[in-house]
Amino acid sequence: MLRFFRALGMAWAAMSNTTRLVVGSAAFFAAVSIVGSIQSQQREEAQLAEERRTEEATKDRVQAEKSRRAALTPEQRAAEEAEKARLTKEKEDAAVRAKAAEDARVAEVKRQAAEAEAKRSDWTYSDAADKVSGKTIKNAGLRSENLEFLAFPYSGGTRGNLQIRRHPRFGTDVIFYTSNGQVQCNAYSSCKVHLRVDDKLTMSLSGNPPEDHDPTVVFLNKSVIGTLRKSSKVVLTVSMFQEGERSFEFRTRNLDWK
After folding, report:
1. Are 234 and 196 in contact (CB under 8 A)?
2. pTM above 0.85, yes or no
3. 96 vs 2, 81, 146, 236, CA distance in Å?
């Protein structure tokens, strides 16, 4: 053995530094691998031992319960079964009550959401001052849900707008106007406007251009306010210059206008 270690020492001394580095690295990684394998095996053994202890403890508890049950009198056994049934019933009743409470909570949340949705309005309201009379101009406005895409030069889509205006000097008007494009309305006579109400009734109305002949604006009869107040949705259709009929959908529910 002594000769072996002497020979090993002589072999090591005869190695170059590079060879020593290679041999040393190989030995290091081999040692790391061996240690890792040992640790892995130890973990597996510890896990198996823990599983065996758990299994033995479970068997002991089962056997102890059997022995305890065997020692009970019929009356004690009946009382124990009755208590077990009572606890099971209490647990089931508690689960039923919890489910009923959760169902009630969900139903209330849905009811409140439906109530809020039913009260929701897309109308916007604003006031402005009439500098001539010194009185207030009241407005209610609504934008269409959809865009209509017209040919050049009207890019980006055209949106319809409804406005109800109460002016201290000019009275009450219902105005339809577009963000761009030209409504086909004769400057010196009325034009046809179709109004479909809640997907049921279609009305044909007479529209009139404004005094300044703005082609994006049409004035409607103020009697339309009653229809808007009672409806949830209207689709307003007008003819547009070189574009044919175009329809704009409005969510009109819950108009607050007196």
Report:
1. yes
2. no
3. 83, 22, 48, 52
- Which residues are bridge partners to 238 per DSSP? 246
d(CA 22, CA 164): 91
User: 124-251 — its CATH code?
Assistant: 2.60.40
Q: For the segment 56-83, what is each residue's pLDDT rounded down to a tens digit? A: 888 888 888 888 888 878 888 888 888 8
Residue from 208, 203, 212, 213 nearest 189 by CA: 208
Give the Cβ contact number of residue 225 at 10 Å: 18
The residue count for the chain: 258
SS3 76: helix
What torsion do the CA atoms of 57, 60, 61, 66 make, to the nearest 10 degrees?
Answer: 160
Q: Give the tens place of pLDDT for each residue, 110-167.
A: 888 888 877 788 999 999 999 999 999 999 999 999 999 988 888 778 999 999 999 9
